[in-house]
Design goal:
There is one protein chain. The chain is mainly alpha-helical. The chain has 11 helices and 2 strands. The protein has a two-stranded antiparallel sheet. The chain is elongated and about 60 Å long. Helix 6 crosses helix 10. The relative contact order is 0.16.
Length: 205
């Protein structure tokens, strides 16, 4: 089994692609913060397609703080797994036959821990149907890392002193946040709804 795992790790294209991909993500983060989440991330795209109109302020009012910062716990766990435990494989993707048959075989031969993790991730993404971008806002470890980079990025959307705190930008945002605050993806959807033109893009002074 160990030998088969070593062969898989050698042949798996993901093993050779993950480093350039992460360099690209963090390279863009230096300039544009969490823009990857707003424009490129495939999970974010799925979340956009799934999302239904929902009361965005409900979770933020009662549990928003706890849920928002929970993604940093997930981030810490991911860092330990990747760098501390050398990214252990709890499941080897089986690519035999059609797509659904391959997924079925992968689940059948996977470790129980991998199955539990996968179910939780899919459930969090599914929650995005009723809570706008639940996974992106509250659980995504990549989003947690990019949130940190967002505070240091060169170019971003930000509020000027003319802001009258009307919160229209927050209501229009599918991440339920404001420019340059936690979970902001620099998408710019908020700019056109600001009644006092207090949202700008560029280098914040």
């Amino acid at each position: 089994r160990r030998r088969n795992l070593q062969v898989y790790q050698t042949l798996c294209p993901g093993r050779s692609l993950w480093l350039p991909v992460w360099i690209g993500i963090f390279g863009t983060a230096v300039f544009f913060g969490r823009a990857f989440c707003g424009y490129v991330c495939p999970v974010g795209t799925v979340a956009d397609l799934l999302a239904l109109p929902s009361p965005k302020g409900v979770l933020k009012k009662f549990m928003g703080f706890t849920l928002t910062y929970a993604k940093y716990i997930v981030l810490a766990a991911a860092v330990i797994l990747v760098f501390g435990m050398n990214n252990p494989r709890w499941a080897i993707p089986i690519r035999t036959g059609d797509f659904f048959n391959s997924v079925k075989l992968t689940f059948e031969h996977a470790n129980n821990l991998w199955i539990a993790r996968t179910v939780l991730v899919l459930a969090a993404i599914g929650l995005g149907i009723v809570v706008s971008k639940f996974w992106c806002r509250y659980r995504c470890p990549t989003g947690g890392m990019l949130d940190i980079a967002n505070t240091l990025s060169m170019f971003k959307y930000f509020k000027t002193p003319e802001c009258n705190d009307c919160a229209k930008c927050e209501k229009a945002c599918n991440m339920a946040t404001r420019p340059a605050e936690i979970n902001c993806t620099n998408c710019g959807d908020c700019r056109d709804v600001c009644p006092v033109d207090a949202i700008k893009f560029g280098m914040e002074k």
